[in-house]
Amino acid sequence: MSRSAERIVSLLWLLLEAGAIGRTKSEIFSYLYDHLDTSQTAKQRQFSRDKEALTSIGVPVQWQQQPQADDVYLIDRDQLYLPDLALTDDEIVALHQARALWMRTPIEDVIHAALARMTAQQPTTPPVVGAQLATGQSLLTELVAAAREQAPVKFRYRTVGREEITVRRVRPWAVLMAHQQWYMTGWDLDRRSQRLFKLSRIESKTISLLAAEVLWDQEHASARPADFDVEDIRQRLYTDQPPTDGYVWLATDTASSVRIRAQRVDQRPGWDLLHITYRDPLKIAATIAALTTNAQVDHDRSPELAELVSDILAIVRDAHRGESALTVPTLAKVARPRKRTGDREVIARRLGIVAVVNQHGGSLPRATVRQRFGISDATLTEDLAAMQFWGMPETDFAGGQFEVDPHADPIEISNAELLAQPWQLSAPEALGLISGLSAVTTIPGVSTTQQAAARSLERKLRDAVDTVAPHVGPHDAIVHPDLSLGDDDEVAEVLHQAARGHLVVNISYYSESSGAISTRAIEPLQLLYSAGHAYVRAWCRNTADHRTFRIDRIGSATLTTESFVPVKEQPDSRAIAPAVNDDAITVVIHATHRQRDVLGAYHPIATAVAHDGSVFAQLAFRSLTPLIELLTNHPGQITVVQPGNIRETVWTMTDQASSTSHESTRELF
């Protein structure tokens, strides 16, 4: 990458140094391209790619056609530099929070570099909430770009209930999140109506852009309506139901997530009658069914819930009767996804380092630079070493290169003063920050002050970007994340408040690994969304160690008045995976296409995709409990295929529980 990056930065410096006069194409070629051992056509293509690279990182390269002279290229400094946004302290906090919502995605580094140069003069603020909102959604960036331009695209799509894959031609309008899943809505050009597409059902590896001519007879009909409201779509996806009372008998020695948020109202030898309140009947019924013979819904008080639990148990039981009829294909080991940083992102980061150091008088401690850009010392040294060859083309402008010592502390960069203030946001940076700011307002527990700061900064960014690229920041947002947690919002609000104010919280927690409920005092550090679940990273005073707690397994969370000092070294929040040992239960499961999205949260060891889009996966569990929960949450849609003894165990447990569920609780007790 070094030669390419060196040439791109040389092009930038040539145009910056020329100012409003600009440089002719002949001049540029004589300095940068004529010496290349390629054809004239290849040199022209390389020049076009280099200009595109600068534009993609937010540098507006302009072309001026001269009537009787060579074309001129220049950078308008009025459009190059980001206007003074006059950021408030609350807006700076909102900026850092918006960046933390795109962890482990291609856009993360881009936003991080933009944020570093935008807030070079202000102190950084560790984000309280982090999210891996787009992990596993490799097509998200492409669809967002198409929706921003309302450019028609095509992709291969598998509809639930059908084995065949169809090609869909769509003009995207927006990308939204609901139930921790991503959807794209737009105009289906073949069905001539608005449609909703789940991103995980797109079978294409990449999105193909279509020629604008495909819109010729639907140009008006296919355009995003002026009154388009993403909340209307969300309301159709959400099944918000009023709270319902339920009564469940639970074995006294059984710990469960059902117990941690329940009230005991009666007791009989070996059993506790619990009063629960729920909104999602399927979810609570699946949780109760997973307890098999250790739980029994009170038929007299909750007949509908009892019937639902009985149905789930029967479906899981029947799906595991005898040997599986499915043949397991060859499974391929899953390679854990790595977030790869592209050449343009690296160039943007390195130029960002130049801008930040320049804003501090050309000198800045290494630790400060590492912290602002989120990079290691080795990466910083590599970046600085590459900068030694940057600046004006060395052959024609001896001494016009950056002066920097890659190993010095503090870092000192000279001869690079042309980039002494933050430049404009690129389209990915602007979209990432704007959509991240819109997600900030959906975080449980976010204060009204933070909401107002996020909204005001979103308006500032839209106005700043509109002056250069109006198509980037339209008034109707393109990306709509959502961090609400439904029934878990109340607990998350307490944890958010505690992490923000550095206050100790007392929690009751159901540990799946130990199968016990305990009371703990924790120091919340960060809320984290990952693979469809919400967690809190915290220092646990009971174990004197960092721990990660799943929020839906926290029963009560009580804020105390005791404060704590956050530790400087916090655990890595980039990935959450359950620890399994040699005693783990390893199974091969089959998930229908409808439910294959679920498997990501269980970190498959190996997988294979069948012709109908269903998935076979090898999973490891610390105990039978999470496996049974997986099966009851998706009855008949996810089943154990191998080994046979686990299938038999599942059948036996659900058969016994199913038989018991048909008996009256009066007979049981």
TrEMBL record:
Pfam families tied to this protein: HTH_PafC, WYL
PROSITE patterns named in the record: WYL (PS52050)
InterPro entries linked to this entry: CBASS_pafABC_assoc_protein, PafC_HTH, WYL_dom
WYL domain segment(s): 139-204, 491-558
Superkingdom of the source species: Bacteria
PafC HTH domain boundaries: 347-462
Protein name: WYL domain-containing protein
Organism whose genome encodes this protein: Enteractinococcus helveticum
